[in-house]
Amino acid sequence: MTSDVVRVFDTTLRDGEQSPGICLDLAEKVEIAEQLGRLGVDVIEAGFPATSPAELEAVARIARTVGATTIAALARVERGDIDKAARALAAAAVPRIHVFIATSEVHMTAKLQMSPAEVLEAARAGVRRSRSHVADVEFSCEDATRSAPEFLVE
Fold first, then answer.
1. Which of 44, 49, 115, 141: disulfide with 84, CB 3.0–4.6 Å?
2. pTM assigned to the model
3. By C-alpha distance, which of 101, 18, 100, 9 is closest to 55?
């Protein structure tokens, strides 16, 4: 199946800020988000609200400010993360929660200390909880390139 549609998903306000030497204040984040909206970016991943009260406020301000563009908030599949993302997105015209969990064997055992079955259930529960807040939920597998392909399919 081919498609002539290209959608732009911008992570400047989340990933971009992780670059060495970059630290954006609230006004700068809002200004960048407004410009991305004017440029017609389809989805702006505004931030990771669970990381700090300031990050939650930045995502909330962007959600209130930027109009028809989808505003996404990143969250681990944990309840608290999802609920903070939903709170930050409350005023968004088009909100999306982007939930993720690590799926590589090394991350499941060393970082999460979870079995594959537990990771699957956590992913399902996280998506369900996100859907209880917003209609648009995106799910990602962290460290997917080192994950077993059959596990990713599952």
1. 49
2. 0.93
3. 18
